[in-house]
């Protein structure tokens, strides 16, 4: 086991879905995976492995924010041999065209975090999705007629931000949505030579004030998870 994940070697698949909420991890495992086994309960950050259409898949909660996600993703990549990691999350739209229930497929992630400023000694690294995964997801979303947007996402360190006016500049520059994890996920995948993608259902829109009722969130999340499973098992 690693420090934060209680799995024995071999108990985690090389392909891992990453919801922020550990209860979403449990929901994905019990809804979609056959023979799902919970491999970790440390800090209640649940992780499961099962099979989807015969392929071994794991699903691991990451918690909220880049520091928390980085702990789990680092250990998955460095200690458990994960090679394909896909965030299945939610985000807030920053453009009025990005409506609730739509999916934002993050091609790249900018951030106000100092993690990469420190890592690259001031150089601006551009955290980027794996192109084959991104294309695979987008082709399936197009075929299924699921509204989606492909572009840049903003991974903020502060949900409650003292300078919300900065968001207006990101809107002006066409950044699609705000969330709190993608830039770190793409950076760690690059570090370990792995493939990463981040797909996020729009739960609210910061420009229009639109918000998705809790009971409607599960359906759009389910559509997104189904497309993700189809993409990673193809
Ligand atoms: N900020 C950060 N993350 C989010 C938001 C937000 O407004 N909405 C959904 N995820």
Write a compact overview of the structure shown.
The chain is of the alpha/beta class.
What is the name of the CATH class? Alpha Beta
Shape designation = globular
The CATH topology, please?
Rossmann fold
Round the Cα radius of gyration to an integer and report it: 17 Å
Detailed description of the structure:
The chain has 234 residues and is α/β, with parallel strands linked by helices. The chain has a single domain (15-232), classed as Nucleoside phosphorylase domain (Rossmann fold, 3-Layer(aba) Sandwich). Helix content is 35%, strand content 27%. It contains seven helices and nine strands, in the order E-H-E-E-E-H-E-E-H-H-E-H-E-H-E-H. A five-stranded mixed β-barrel has the order 5-8-7-6-9. It binds hypoxanthine. The site of hypoxanthine has 11 residues, from strand 5, strand 8 and strand 9.
Helices and strands, with pairings:
Blueprint: E1 15-18, H1 22-32, E2 34-40, E3 47-52, E4 55-60, H2 66-79, E5 84-93, E6 103-111, H3 115-119, H4 131-144, E7 148-155, H5 165-172, E8 177-179, H6 182-191, E9 195-205, H7 214-233
Parallel strand pairs: 1-4, 1-5, 5-9, 6-7, 7-8
Antiparallel strand pairs: 2-3, 3-4, 5-8, 6-9
Helix pairs in contact: 2-6, 4-7
The protein binds hypoxanthine (HPA).
Output the keywords.
9 strands; binds hypoxanthine; alpha/beta; five-stranded mixed β-barrel; 7 helices; Rossmann fold; 27% strand; 234 residues; globular
